Amino acid sequence: MGGQKFQYDESGGTFFYFLLSFLALLLVPSTYYWWPRKEIEDPTKNERDCHCKGCKKKQGILKSNEPWKGMKQLLTKLIIVLGWIFLALLAYKVSQFDYEYANFDPYEILGVPMGTSQADIKKAYKTQSLVLHPDKKTGDEKAFMKLTKAYQALTDAESRKNWEKYGNPDGPGAMSFGIALPSWIVEKENSVWVLGLYALVFMVALPTVVGIWWYRSIQYTGDQVLLSTCQMYFYFFHKTPSMALKRVILILSASHEFEKQYNSEIVERPTDNIEYPQVMKQLSNFGEKNRERPLCYTYALRARVLMFAHLSRIPLPENTLDRDRMYIVKKCPYLIREMVNGVSQLIMLAYARRVSRLPSIETIENCMKLGPMMVQGLWEYKSPLLQLPHVGEEHLKFFLTKKRPVKTIQQFVQLKSEDRRSILRFLDDEQYEDVMKVVGKMPLIDFQVRSEVIDDEASTVFTAGAIVTVSCTLIRKDMQTLFGDESAKEKHCEFESVEAKEKSEKKEDGENEDDENKEKEKEASKKPVWQKQQRKGTKKSAKKAQSNKKQQNKPEAKNATVTKKEEEKEKEPEKREKKTANGPSSNAEKKETVKEAGGGDSSGADESDLSDDDADRSDDDDSGDKKESMEDDDDWARFQSNFRRRDRVLEGKSKLSHTVHCPYFPEEKQEYWWVYISDRKSRTLLTSPVHITALVEKEEVQLKFTAPRWPGVYIFTVCLRSDSYLGFDQTTEIKLDVKEAPEVPTDHPQWDMSGEEEEESKPEGEPSDISEFATDDDIDDDDD
């Protein structure tokens, strides 16, 4: 290998092969992923969409946000088509290369069949050489050299031998290594340009691109929020543990995303000094006298004006302030989510005593309330009916009927169709149809909560310091399921189902006490995990050990009975051997054992009673086995559900659920939800809020917290909050009866290995007299 030299491609053939394969690797996936596909429009989309004034304006805004969409698609198609044309030209170029002696066949070159005589070969060579000789007008030097080699391969003995052995009349060729690059790259006159190109790409362009990307990425969080904004949130929430909603808006407006120094997309105009004061005069509850930094800065003041105007639904100049409003409102959901995460982290740090002040539950809930306010463009104290299309402030008086005032959307849906139409009598048929379309798509959530202690024998018994797992199941349906079913309307009352009502009635009447007693009995009958793994018959041995202990503590007047018990013990091994050899014992054998245990004098009635008792015991054993199998099935089902949940976590969070009707929000919005547990009595947060972003039909979330350290009855609240709609929040209370934690046993039979060691040490065939659950005193007495 030391004498080998790498050769560059002189003819350019191998370089074209390299370029062809490289271009194909780029074009195939690029065409698959980037080729513009025509979106198939749903013919029923127009019928399903709302045609209110706000929705029409929003559709126009969404279309205007992509002015270059058609040009980008055309340019993408052109680049991909040119790439495939260039690939086809390269393929044709490569196919035209004729490498010498690639398939050397002298008979084919001379134009004679195989097995031709030497005379005919010479004649054919002479005929073609007169045509291909370089001295002739029709001569071809390359073809003549190939003809000569073919003639030598068939007439010369050594050349024919080389051809038959190596496929080449010249003999075996030398091994050579080449590089699939053209030779002009290493030519001396081109070396400066080649080195300059390498330096420009790898020493200037590549480090610059990586540095710019890295510098920008380290300034943002995972949700593309500036780290400086997150630090400001932490400062203010730590400074003010209990924060009102209006102050949350002040902090949100001071986000650095709205300052031109941090965000180049912010536009400042000369007309701002005139338009902003005019809008500020229309805001009655603005309150501009704040002097805290950066809350008093100009950019924060302008952002706050636009937020207040958005929540008050004040019309703004379309080409100036309205564009700024849409940009700021579009950023708010991400910033509010970061605020919620920041407050929850502060609360958890306060629990760990790493920060001194504990933010209250009202602070984080005010942050969550701000989400649907920004999406719907409504203040919290406004009626949630204003989320319906074609409904304004002046129309709310129609909902205040004499029979039953309608204050929420759920109450409106539960009305009969004629009552709904009578309330909306100020709308025409098309507008009324828009209202029913929007209401029909709104969410109807069945919020189910179950609390337990996972990986514990008694999962419904809560002890002090135990890890409590609250499984929250969210089943999402459309409101339109209540339109044609009057019974369903009665079942789905506002924030409460029939099951919840029945449970509350049972608690009032005291009917839950029997159920609790039954659950306790079931839990007591459950076998512990370490006992399930025992062999059959451990219950009998345990009972015998307990009876032995009781009999040994009896007075001397009952010594005769004790001696009979000891005789019974001695006979037990023989009977066990018979049972193992001959199968299960008969009733006669059972009667004999009963007679021996009872002293030999027993009547027939007693025998029949005892046999019935044995039958009952066998039935109890069968029922116990069934219970064990049912418990195993439950454990397996719980394991599978946990495994599927972990798979969903590994796959990543989906951001698609259901589209929200929000004409005042400049983008398409999906339904998201917050789920958390709080203690209303102490106004604290027990679990970090979980953000649910993929609730299409059903979603399950597990919330875990540590049970209180002191025994007692505690009531916690599981909260479900929407970040898109006002008036759709739900709360469910869970009651925990916390018991005192049991002491850890030190002399548990599970860890007492002395009996097992003695059993192993005994020879085969000799049964053990000591029960697995016998105490040390019993073992000493048996030894005596």
From TrEMBL:
Annotated SUPFAM superfamilies: Chaperone J-domain, E set domains, Sec63 N-terminal domain-like
Any one GO molecular function term: RNA binding
Region (Disordered): 493-634, 738-784
Keywords from the named record: Chaperone, Endoplasmic reticulum, Membrane, Protein transport, Transmembrane, Transmembrane helix, Transport
Membrane-topology annotation of the record: Multi-pass membrane protein
Keyword Transmembrane part of the UniProt annotation: yes
Coiled-coil region: none
Membrane-traversing stretches: 15-35, 74-92, 192-215
Subcellular location: Endoplasmic reticulum membrane
Pfam family, one: Sec63
Compositional bias annotation for Acidic residues: 604-623, 754-784
InterPro entries found in the cross-reference section: C2_domain_sf, DnaJ_domain, Ig_E-set, J_dom_sf, Sec63-dom
Main localization, broad class: endoplasmic reticulum
Composition-biased stretches (Basic and acidic residues): 493-509, 517-526, 553-580, 738-750
Alphabetized PANTHER family for the sequence: SEC63 DOMAIN-CONTAINING (PTHR24075), TRANSLOCATION PROTEIN SEC63 HOMOLOG (PTHR24075:SF0)
Name of the protein this chain belongs to: Uncharacterized protein
Organism whose genome encodes this protein: Apolygus lucorum
